[in-house]
Amino acid sequence: MQNYNSKFKNTIILLIIGFALFPVITFAAILYLEPSSGEYQPGDTFLVEMKIDTEGECINTIEANLSFSQDILKAVDFSQGKSIITLWVKSPEINQEKGEISFRGGIPGGYCGRIPGDPEASNSLGKIIFRIPGMIVGELMESSAEVKILDTSQVLLNDGLGTKAKLTTQGANFKILSKLEPSKDEWQEELEKDNIPPEQFEIEIQQTPAIFEGKYFITFSTSDKQTGVDYYEAKEGKRNWQIAESPYLLEDQSLQSIIKVKAVDKTGNERIAEYTPEIPKRTFLYWIIILVLIGVGVIWWILKRIKK
Amino acid sequence: MLDTEGIEDTSFGEGKNKNRIVLKFYGMAFYSRNIITLIIFIPIFLGLILSPIFLPFQEVLASVIPSSVTVSVTGCGNGIQEGSEQCDGSDLGGATCVSLGYAGGTLSCQADCTFNTSACTSGGGGGGYVPPPTVTKVIIQGKAYPQAEITLLEDGKVVTTKKADTLANFEIEIADITAGIWTFGIWAEDKDGRKSITFSFTTSVTAGVTTTVSGIFIPPTIELSKVSLQKGETLNIFGQTAPESEISISVESPEIVKKTIATEEGDWDYSFDTGILDESSYTTRAKATSPEGLLSSYSEVLSFYIGKGVPGVICPSADLNGDGKVNLIDFSILLYWWGKDDSCSDQNGNGVIDLPDFSIMMYYWTG
Fold first, then answer.
1. Which residue, A126, A158, A193, sits at the end of a domain?
2. 3-class state of residue A169 by DSSP
3. Total of domains in chain B
4. Which value does ipTM take for this structure?
């Protein structure tokens, strides 16, 4: 009994020390997928939403790395429409061959979870659009497809130090059944509802010795609250539109061209921002002054010749 | 969980167990040699058993604690008809088909908190109900500092600025906003030009409804009289908050908490005696509780050193181009150097521009 008593005491003391020293690890952010299960059939297109539960923490940065059964599922797109992430260090990338999806981004000022009264959970990081190819009908009698959130994913606290939050992940598992009913396309339904262009935005011209060897570049960013921004295009003067990302190094370093940036959402709705440089106006005035001076010079020269 | 009859016998026994106290708990008997051990043992037991109950209230020191911040949102979907909502769920605000001009029928509420009059019946030539035009609007209410300049960010971009009144209250209205998930950020500049940390919250905005976010209390501004001191010198920690708020100043680590009350003008200061600290580097931050009971999150974290000073960061607070703001331009500079080394962008000094540097930039974001 003595021995048992002493061991029991030691265990309790260790537990108390544990409770006292590690209050921080009692909370952990959870990255999870919704739905986490379901039944689909070849030809179906369905959405899997990646969400975060911060468990009382304030976080500001998320790196997500996922893997999926690439032989059964085809990741056709990623929608940022309802994502809480507003700045993307790395836009969502899909590698179908390897069955991987990854992205990195953040929330300026941080995200501290759902606030009381918010009718929605407001904790989505984005939606992955999966399709089960119709041609595998014969090969699949009944199968399952997995989507995993990899351990390389990380979440950082909004503490000004870049501290990693303790993280737990919950993947998803889907049952693929033989084709019985007409195919569903959840993504098409979302696309059809989206008739609103991306949010208004501005182009800012910048120059700093820190980057692009001090050359002029532009910055821009916007969001689309429905299906999400798909891509940006930029155009300088009469040059053609070309795919662009912020920061974008300007070709015309004289800043005399009108700059346009187009944000296009997943449905194809467009929002164009325009920047008209002030310099062309000054140049116009400059040429008027030059012409006047030349005119005065010519008159003076003519008068001088006449006097001679 | 706790057996109330567990502590059955605290009497002194005989023979082998003489002078021992017997503690019976769930059928297990434990013996103690003296009353002091028992006094230590019982609180430990109770602490262990009751600690899970208090776990949700436990504070996480590493970051801002949202559960202790008084922010709430009212809007469509919470089942309560409020603001500009015509109805919310089953709450029709007392309206019926008849009160809306119909002859009869059943009135219900749509998902966007407007009336569904499809089941209302019009009796022979009645005019029926014409719903008023609806706008999607967000109202943000809270407290900052007297006459403070408030800057509002939408998804990280500055959209408007407004001045708080002399009692530090502010209200900002955003009209004609697209429905969806939005992250709003607010920071304030006090009368002495000190800027607060950005306080952010994410909420969904419903189409055709006024979403009101209230109870915001912007973290106090904070400044130090010195960043490098000799042991025993007095460190003045000061800043601004709402008038007569209680300020809780935390110096770490180990954590030392001191309290003070702000003046009627919202100024606060505390003279901290560094005599109790060893030669090392420390951090300090403050949070406030207003007289009405609003709680702020923590302010910016400031560092100071007792003894020999440690050189500061080359580009402090993630302001990479030194323009006094942390915005898309600084983000562009960070992206340019991503994966490489740049002494200015490398905020945590680990020799490479990576995710922690980005996280530090998100923390200091001003838009």
1. A193
2. strand
3. 3
4. 0.76
